[in-house]
């Protein structure tokens, strides 16, 4: 059992529990999971005092872990060292109820801890509704335990639930609230689609990646006016933030920062944050930000890929961005990765290293969807000429008698509007091979 101490008495003291079932889930992997769980606990406001791993081939349906290990944890808790016990695996309602009864302290699982962090991080009305919906759907089968739990709450982790007024409600009222939240979120999505309808002509790029990979820092580096919240904490960003990124003259993309992914991301959160993740689905391509300094970055890459598949991303329009290269001491590691991922971009968002190379890569990627056109019109048709200069990249201008011939290039998303404007002036465009 590894022990950690903190001098801050105001924070709750937590004990973390993991279960290893070799060879499917070996002890080393469980230790890595618990390291991440410790980061989650710290983000939620607790100091990890101890971790316990039990080797167990079959999980106990009543306790998850063995009864002997439960007694060991109970001894530690009643010794006054622990306020909170957090399990890395999801607990069934029966397991949670049995454990709380014996341990006589708050017992959370990984999903409930993540829900708590989301509740603390949610700032916008939409994010708060999404978190409340996820909490209610998760807690619906656990109502009996939850009401007892909240009636004795003293604050701290696990107590920022949908609200104390829910204590006396029954399942019918909770289901009614869930239905109301879903309708409200559908309305928010419809309103958002209306407000952003004018963006359809502009290529869209979304930042995705494991939580704390540096997406918000990179967003601020690419778009200094973004003012995206960046902190060395998990899930620092819940609300999607979109800004214009100017690449070249009349070559602009809309860059969106999105919520980070994590191993064992609760299914309720994936479903409830689908309106936020729509930015990922609607993006023309993605920037997959990877924390190269993390020892488990390859596993994190796989988690992100699986999550993208789960939410419905079916294309391979992805640029892999290896971040925090300044934290890698061995140059051979970077050389090996550049050989393995020749199309990836290696940056340091904090120090601004290779950010221009990333912009160039984005510009080249966007350029794949640009098409060339040519147009001949009278030189006095300044409105149409001005429109093309404003909405396309004019490559060449030639004069023939009193006419001007413009060769221009525009993104496929913009061509429909440009074609309509050109035809409104009685012209036909000529496609350039």
From TrEMBL:
Record-linked SUPFAM superfamilies: P-loop containing nucleoside triphosphate hydrolases (SSF52540)
Main localisation: cytoplasm
Location of the protein in the cell: Cytoplasm
InterPro entries per the UniProt record, alphabetical: G_HFLX_dom, GTP-bd, GTP-bd_M, GTPase_HflX, GTPase_HflX_N, GTPase_HflX_N_sf, P-loop_NTPase
Gene3D superfamilies: 6.10.250.2860, GTPase HflX, N-terminal domain, P-loop containing nucleotide triphosphate hydrolases
Domain Hflx-type G: 203-370
Entry superkingdom: Bacteria
One Pfam family linked to the record: GTP-bdg_M
Alphabetic keyword roster: Cytoplasm, GTP-binding, Magnesium, Metal-binding, Nucleotide-binding
PANTHER family recorded: GTP-BINDING PROTEIN 6-RELATED, GTP-BINDING PROTEIN HFLX
Family label: Belongs to the TRAFAC class OBG-HflX-like GTPase superfamily. HflX GTPase family.
Subunit structure: Monomer. Associates with the 50S ribosomal subunit.
Known role: GTPase that associates with the 50S ribosomal subunit and may have a role during protein synthesis or ribosome biogenesis.
Protein name: GTPase HflX
Natural source organism: Prosthecochloris ethylica
């Amino acid at each position: 059992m590894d022990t950690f101490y903190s001098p801050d008495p105001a924070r709750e003291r937590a004990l973390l529990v993991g279960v290893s079932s070799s060879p499917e889930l070996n002890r080393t992997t469980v230790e890595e999971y618990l390291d991440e769980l410790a980061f989650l606990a710290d983000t939620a406001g607790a100091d990890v005092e101890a971790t316990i791993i039990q080797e167990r081939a079959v999980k106990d349906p009543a306790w998850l872990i063995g009864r002997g290990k439960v007694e060991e944890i109970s001894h530690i808790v009643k010794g006054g060292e622990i306020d909170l016990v957090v399990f890395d695996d999801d607990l069934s309602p029966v397991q949670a109820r049995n454990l709380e009864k014996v341990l006589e302290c708050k017992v959370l699982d990984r999903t409930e801890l993540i829900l708590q962090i989301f509740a603390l991080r949610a700032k916008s009305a939409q994010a708060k509704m999404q978190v409340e919906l996820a909490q209610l759907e998760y807690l619906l089968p656990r109502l009996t335990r939850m009401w007892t739990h909240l009636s004795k709450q003293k604050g701290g982790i696990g107590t920022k639930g949908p609200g104390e007024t829910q204590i006396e409600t029954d399942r019918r009222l909770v289901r009614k609230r869930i239905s109301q939240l879903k309708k409200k979120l559908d309305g928010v999505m419809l309103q958002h689609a209306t407000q952003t309808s004018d963006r359809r002509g502009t290529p869209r790029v979304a930042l995705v990646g494991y939580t704390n990979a540096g997406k918000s820092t990179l967003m601020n580096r690419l778009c200094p006016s973004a003012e995206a919240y960046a902190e060395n904490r998990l899930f620092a960003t819940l609300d999607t933030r979109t800004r214009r990124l100017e690449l070249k003259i009349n070559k602009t993309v809309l860059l969106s920062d999105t919520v980070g992914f994590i191993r064992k991301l609760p299914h309720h959160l994936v479903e409830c944050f689908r309106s936020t993740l729509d930015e990922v689905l609607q993006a023309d391509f993605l920037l997959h930000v990877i924390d190269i300094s993390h020892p488990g970055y390859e596993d994190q890459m796989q988690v992100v890929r699986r999550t993208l598949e789960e939410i419905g991303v079916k294309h391979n329009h992805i640029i892999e961005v290896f971040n925090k290269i300044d934290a890698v001491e061995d140059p051979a590691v970077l050389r090996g990765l550049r050989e393995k991922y020749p199309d990836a971009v290696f940056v340091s968002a904090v120090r601004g290293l290779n950010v221009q190379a990333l912009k160039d890569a984005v510009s080249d990627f966007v350029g794949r969807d640009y098409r060339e056109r040519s147009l001949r019109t009278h030189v006095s048709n300044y409105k149409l000429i001005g429109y093309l200069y404003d909405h396309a990249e004019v490559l060449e201008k030639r004069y023939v008698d009193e006419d001007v011939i413009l060769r221009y290039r525009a993104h496929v998303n913009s061509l429909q509007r440009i074609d309509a404007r050109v035809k409104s002036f009685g012209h036909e465009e000529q496609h350039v091979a």
